[in-house]
Amino acid sequence: MDTPPNYGIVKNQPLNKNNLLTTHYRLGIKRLPTTMYFCQSANIPGLAMVTVEQPTSFNPIIRSGGRVLQEDLKISFVVDEDFKNWREVRNWILNCTDYTDYLEYKVPSEHLSDEITLFVLDSNHQEVSKVVFYNAFPNYLSGIEYNSTNPSTDPVICQATFAYTYYKIFDL
């Protein structure tokens, strides 16, 4: 008696058994071409759902609060020797504010946000998904620290975080 291939535990097996690899990604930020080139790490931010307690005469009942809290998009990058990529992020942050003179402030749609795309690659380095962050802008840039007591010649690595309205994940 032949048994069909889609029964029991066989039915629950994934088609693709390859692991997601942390080194298989590519970051796309139009406004930051040099930073994008030197990118060392990036994340797909986590989410948390707000909950509320519904009072009862016994124990409260936990309900969905209907709101999602998003972590920031975080990247780290090697700073090039002209620190052009660090200045790209710095200038974007400064352009989003009236840092020195309120007369320099521009309408937010002209400079504030951009789309950032994180491409997820498979084991053959082919794009399988993309994560698009909408209305993204930098809200943190770490400083550059010099240290003459360090005997190694490790590159300077900085971090930047980006706020965004929302992100979507697309299969390619």
Main beta sheet strand tally, sense and closure: 7 strands, antiparallel
Secondary structural class: mainly beta
Outline type:
extended
Total number of helices:
3
Strand content: 35-45%
Mean pLDDT: 87
Indicate the radius of gyration in whole angstroms: 22 Å
Q: What distance separates the N and C termini?
A: 41 Å
Helix content: 10-25%
Which stretches are poorly predicted, pLDDT < 50 over at least 5 residues? none
Please, could you describe this protein's structure?
- By secondary structure, the chain is mainly beta.
- The chain has three helices and nine strands; from the N terminus they run βαββββααββββ.
- The strands form two sheets. Strands 1, 2, 5, 6, 7, 8 and 9 form a seven-stranded antiparallel sheet that branches. A two-stranded antiparallel ribbon has the order 3-4.
- A hairpin with a 6-residue loop joins strand 3 (47-54) and strand 4 (61-70).
- The chain is extended.
- The model has no long low-confidence stretch (mean pLDDT 87).
Features:
single chain, two-stranded antiparallel sheet, 3 helices
Helix and strand topology:
Blueprint: E1 25-29, H1 33-37, E2 39-42, E3 47-54, E4 61-70, E5 73-78, H2 84-95, H3 108-111, E6 114-121, E7 127-141, E8 157-163, E9 166-171
Antiparallel strand pairs: 1-6, 2-5, 3-4, 5-8, 6-7, 7-8, 7-9
